[in-house]
Each structure stands twice: as structure tokens, then as C-alpha cells.
Specification:
Elements: H1 6-11, H2 14-35, E1 37-38, H3 40-44, H4 46-55, E2 62-65, H5 72-76, H6 115-128, E3 135-140, H7 147-154, H8 156-159, E4 164-169, H9 180-190, H10 195-204, E5 206-213, H11 217-230, E6 235-241, H12 249-253, E7 260-261, E8 268-269, H13 270-284, E9 288-292, H14 302-307, E10 312-314, H15 319-331, E11 335-341, H16 342-345, H17 349-357, E12 364-368, H18 385-390, E13 396-398, H19 403-414, E14 420-423, E15 427-428, E16 442-445, E17 451-455, H20 458-473, E18 480-483, E19 486-488, H21 492-497, E20 502-510, H22 515-522, E21 529-535, H23 545-552, H24 556-569
Parallel strand pairs: 2-3, 3-4, 4-6, 5-6, 9-10, 9-11, 11-12, 12-14, 13-14, 17-18, 17-20, 20-21
Antiparallel strand pairs: 1-7, 8-15, 13-19, 16-18
Helix pairs in contact: 4-11, 6-7, 13-19, 15-17, 20-24
Length: 570
């Protein structure tokens, strides 16, 4: 798509603006169909983004996206049209705002609820430096469920600054928006909200302007002009209604299914197995309940929610609250399963420690998208969970080798009376699994070799299998291979009883604090040499998951080289 200058945008006729909107939609559809990405959310904000670029002066003015699922039109309007076809590819443009990518991206985002705090910080820095520009936080209604938003609102008067909060209300996060805040916004849209609801925003120090049609330029342009005028004196909340998937019939009808699009054929999903197993467990045990934070469909829980609505809890984008809710359910005698992406569980770190594990409550964390997630980049790579969970007392951590073993771990957790975490990647293979023994590794191949590989998780075991075959083909010793399926408790009995001198560990996680560190500590003073393969001390960018795994994490060449070195040393 040809780049559009700010001058051309400001001088364009109304008809030309509408044509530009359709051109942007077409470019997004074409690119996402090839590269994957967030589709429906971006289609819904095309007119809103065009209007913002028409009225405000970017990059002098600062636009902060909450989450960033809706930044594609902004990228197309800020000098990146000629590179847009590289979306989410290694070395190409990111699917989220990136300060290192463009001056038009004023803050990196990827998780919900951060935009308002960031906007206040940028605005206050502006005031202290006596600079002159506007700060706009573009926040979806789904993010308005997040507690961080209200912490930021609470400090708005205290900070004595001016910002524009642009509330993009489409009734959706990934799944339909839920909760009391959603009901308030619905009443505001319908004109049935009591006056106290509007006054609540005013008490925070905001002028409430709403409700405007966010896919109608005739409505948007004067509304933004008015909001810009008010910003000279006060902060403003401009409430606009958009339609997720606007302009594409299927996306409009199924915004949940087209929130994120993955090109190509999908493999088997751990999420599907999670839903199936929880339904089976819940039929036998009335204590079983499911908790999620706005991820019902993506995590495979839709059928559970349909069959057991009274035992299903979607709290919206509130990961910390969901953790404490699960703890409370467990304290009350229920058996909660909290399904969440690895990257989002990071937000509930304190609650995992104090509320769940500190009380030794039987909450099971089902941690999806563990390891490299791929094209969503730094904010979504799930490579820290083993590290930030490993040192928490009372927590069992399991890592299945395939979907069949995942099912066994879920069944084991149902009878387990303490915190239990199972981490797994997005796609996998059903495979086969032998009966599971709590806290014990599985010996897969035992060879007459002085080298042993402990691999955790499906991806790393597949890599280790390839390494063993490669070693055999090259006439090198074939290592013994072990499925290290529990990080806690660690199978210290096997680790200390094995005779091999050279120990290799491989994990789909950061090396600091992960499986390799745990095994090295266990074997300290045992006369063994441990070399660990995983992810180094760096954030992993966006790109193809397999390629990123090879580039930043454990890879076949390095592991085979280690076997050669061990063999040469004897």
C-alpha cells in the first residue's frame, strides 16, 4: 500500500477519506490472510484511526494503544505501508506497537490495561518538561475490566495532567465482554444509564463525551475536534461504538473466531484436550469448576461453559482477580482449574505465591502457549513460566510430552490436594503415554553411553530424538533419553542414580531458573558435567515459532556439537 502523508490526509475530501478506509481494510485482509494476525479488531477501528490521524498531529502527539490488537491501520498511516506485507515475520514489522520500529509508536504494548497508566506518565513528563502535545490512550471496552485501568483513573486528579481516553467499545475482548463494567457501558450506549454513571467519570476528573458512532466519519471527525478543544483545559473520555470486523461479513458475524487468524493448517490442540478432560472430570466430581480471564474459546473451555454454566467463571481481562477467585473457590471446598496463557499468568505472580501456594490450596493452573509463541513477539513468548514458578513452595509443576500424557496429568491433578501447574505449547500430538507416577521422570531410551539427555516438553523431546538419531548416524554415542516431565518435585532419585558423566538438559524456557538450573543444583558435587540448552537472557522477537526456537533456543547443531565434544573427551 502506498504511504499516505499527513498533509494529504488533512486535505482529503470526505469521499477520499472513505475510499482510504476501504483501501486500508483491503490491505489488512490481504496481509493477514497470508501472515496471520489480529483481524476483526483492526477492521473495526479503520475509520477511528483515519479520523485520529486527520485531527491530531502524529508523531508529535502521542497515541498509546491498550494491548495493541488494533494498531494495523495506524501502522499503514504512519509510513509503513510499503513494509506492511512483512507483518509478524522475522525482521519485518511487529503486530504490536514498537518504539524501536517507528516514532509513531510511543509505547510498547501487548497486555491489557497498561495504556492509561502509560499515557498519564507520558503526559506528566510533558508537563514537567513544558512541552506542548496531546496524549491519547486508545482503550477497548474489554480492557476496561482490568483493575490497572482503575488504579490509573484513581490517580488522574492527583497527577493534575490532561489526556484523552478514547474508549473503543465493541462489546468484545477475544470473547464477548462480561461483567459489571460491561453492563454500565451497555446502559450508556442505550441511553438508559443513570446520571450517577456519567458523574462517576467526572469524579475521576474526566469530561465524558459520548456516545458516538466509531465507524462513521461524519460523527467521528467533529467529536474528535471537540475533544481536542476540551483537552486545552481538562481530560476527556470520548466513548465511541465500533463494530469488530467492520466491512467484512464473516468477521462481523464471528468476531471471536476472527480475532486472531493463523494461516495454514492447524495441528492438534492441547486446548481441545483440556475441554474434553475437564468435562469428563466434572461429570464425576461436582467440585470441579473452570476459571478463565476472557479466554473461554481460545483455551478450549466453551463446551465446559455450555454444559456446566453454574461452575464456569469468565472474569474478563483480570488475571490477578481470577487467581484469587480460584483460591477462594478452593478455600470454599471447590476444585478450580484456571486456564490461562503463560504470558498472561505472569501478571498474577503475587497471587500465585500468597493466595494459592501460600495457603496450599488445590488450584490447578493449565498454562497454555508455553514456550515460544511466535509471531506475536516479545510480549507473548511464554518462556519464563518454569523460572517464575519453580521457586514457589507447595507448587507441583508438570510438563507433558504429548497430549495423551497431558490428559493423564489432568486426571492426576483432580485427586491432588495442593497447587498443581501443567504447562504446554499450543499445538501438539496426541501420541501415547504410559501410566504416570507422581514426581517421576520417564526413561525413554537407555543406551550404553556416557551421555544422558533430560528433555522437558513435546518440542524439546522431539528435538532430543532428532539429536539422538543424528548422533547414531554420525557414529557418535547415542545418548540415553529421559522425559523430564516434572520440574517440581524433581526426580532426584533418578538424577543421582544414573551413571552417565555428561548431562545435557533441554527446555523450552529461559535458562535462568529453569529445568537446567534445577538439575545442576541437584547434581552439584556428584562429579558430573551439566550443559543446559534453552533460551538465553534476552527477549525473543516476533517471527516463525520454529525458526525462533532454532535461533534463540536449543538447537540441533549445538547439541550434536556437545555430544562430539563429550565423545572426544571420553
Amino acid at each position: 500500500m502506498k504511504d499516505i502523508t499527513q498533509e494529504a490526509l488533512r486535505s482529503a475530501s470526505f469521499n477520499q477519506l472513505q475510499e482510504l478506509c476501504e483501501e486500508i481494510r483491503g490491505e489488512i485482509l490481504r496481509t493477514v490472510s497470508v501472515r496471520g494476525g489480529h483481524l476483526a479488531s483492526n477492521l473495526g477501528v479503520v475509520e477511528l484511526t483515519v479520523a485520529l490521524h486527520r485531527i491530531f498531529d502524529f508523531p508529535k502527539d502521542k497515541l498509546i494503544f491498550d494491548v495493541g490488537h488494533q494498531c494495523y491501520p495506524h501502522k499503514l498511516l504512519s509510513g509503513r505501508g510499503d513494509r506492511f506485507a512483512t507483518l509478524r515475520t522475522r525482521g519485518g514489522i511487529s503486530g504490536f506497537p514498537k518504539r524501536t520500529e517507528s516514532a509513531y509508536d510511543s509505547y510498547d504494548t501487548g497486555h491489557a490495561g497498561t495504556a492509561l497508566s502509560a499515557a498519564l506518565g507520558i503526559a506528566k513528563a510533558r508537563d514537567l518538561k513544558r512541552e506542548d502535545f496531546q496524549v491519547i490512550a486508545l482503550i477497548g471496552d474489554g480492557s476496561f475490566n482490568n483493575g490497572l485501568i482503575y488504579e490509573a483513573l484513581n490517580s488522574l486528579k492527583l497527577l493534575q495532567t490532561r489526556i484523552l481516553i478514547l474508549l473503543n467499545d465493541n462489546g468484545m475482548s477475544i470473547s464477548p465482554t462480561v461483567g459489571g463494567t460491561h453492563e454500565v457501558l451497555e446502559e450508556l450506549k442505550e441511553g438508559s444509564a443513570p446520571l450517577e454513571d456519567v458523574r462517576l467519570f467526572e469524579r475521576y476528573g474526566l469530561r465524558y463525551m459520548g456516545v458516538y458512532a466509531g465507524n462513521d466519519l461524519e460523527s467521528l471527525l467533529p467529536a474528535l475536534e471537540e475533544a481536542k478543544e476540551h483537552l486545552q483545559r481538562e481530560s476527556v473520555l470520548l466513548h465511541v461504538i465500533t463494530k469488530k470486523g467492520q466491512g467484512h461479513a464473516f468477521c462481523e458475524q464471528a468476531p471471536d473466531l476472527t480475532h486472531g487468524v493463523t494461516p495454514g493448517k492447524k495441528g492438534e490442540e492441547y486446548a481441545t484436550a483440556l475441554g474434553e478432560e475437564l468435562i469428563a472430570l466434572a461429570r464425576r466430581d461436582e467440585r470441579i469448576v473452570a476459571v478463565t480471564a476472557a479466554m473461554t474459546d481460545a483455551l478450549g473451555l466453551r463446551q465446559f461453559f455450555n454444559q456446566f454454566p453454574a461452575r464456569s467463571f469468565d472474569v474478563g481481562i483480570c488475571e490477578e482477580h481470577a487467581s484469587v477467585l480460584a483460591a477462594g473457590l478452593a478455600a470454599g471446598g471447590m476444585k478450580p482449574y484456571y486456564a490461562i496463557y503463560s504470558t498472561f499468568l505472569q501478571r498474577a505472580f503475587d497471587e500465585i505465591i500468597h493466595d494459592v501456594c501460600g495457603q496450599n490450596l488445590p488450584v490447578t493452573f493449565c498454562i497454555d502457549r508455553a514456550g515460544v509463541a511466535g509471531a506475536d513477539g516479545e510480549t507473548h513468548q511464554g518462556v519464563f513460566d518454569l523460572s517464575y514458578l519453580a521457586f514457589i513452595p507447595n507448587l507441583t509443576i508438570a510438563i507433558p510430552k504429548n497430549i495423551a500424557e497431558f490428559r493423564l496429568m489432568l486426571r492426576m491433578s483432580a485427586a491432588y490436594p495442593a497447587p498443581f501447574a501443567i504447562r504446554y505449547p499450543r499445538g501438539g500430538n496426541e501420541g501415547e503415554a504410559k501410566p504416570l507416577e507422581f514426581g517421576k521422570f520417564e526413561l525413554l531410551h537407555s543406551n550404553m553411553s556416557d551421555i544422558i539427555i533430560y528433555a522437558a516438553g513435546e518440542r524439546c523431546l522431539a528435538l532430543a530424538e532428532r539429536v539422538c538419531k543424528r548422533a547414531a548416524a554420525e557414529g557418535l554415542p547415542t545418548p540415553t533419553l529421559v522425559n523430564a516431565r516434572f520440574l517440581k518435585p524433581l526426580d532426584e532419585e533418578m538424577l543421582r542414580s544414573r551413571p552417565e558423566k555428561y548431562v545435557i538438559t533441554v527446555e523450552d524456557n529461559a535458562l535462568i531458573g529453569g529445568l537446567g538450573d534445577a538439575i545442576a543444583r541437584c547434581l552439584r558435587g556428584q562429579g558430573k558435567e551439566v550443559m543446559s540448552f534453552g533460551f538465553g537472557d534476552a527477549f525473543i522477537p516476533h517471527g516463525d515459532a520454529r525458526a525462533l526456537f532454532e535461533e534463540f533456543g536449543p538447537n540441533e547443531e549445538a547439541m550434536v556439537a556437545r555430544i562430539r565434544e563429550c565423545h572426544a573427551r571420553g
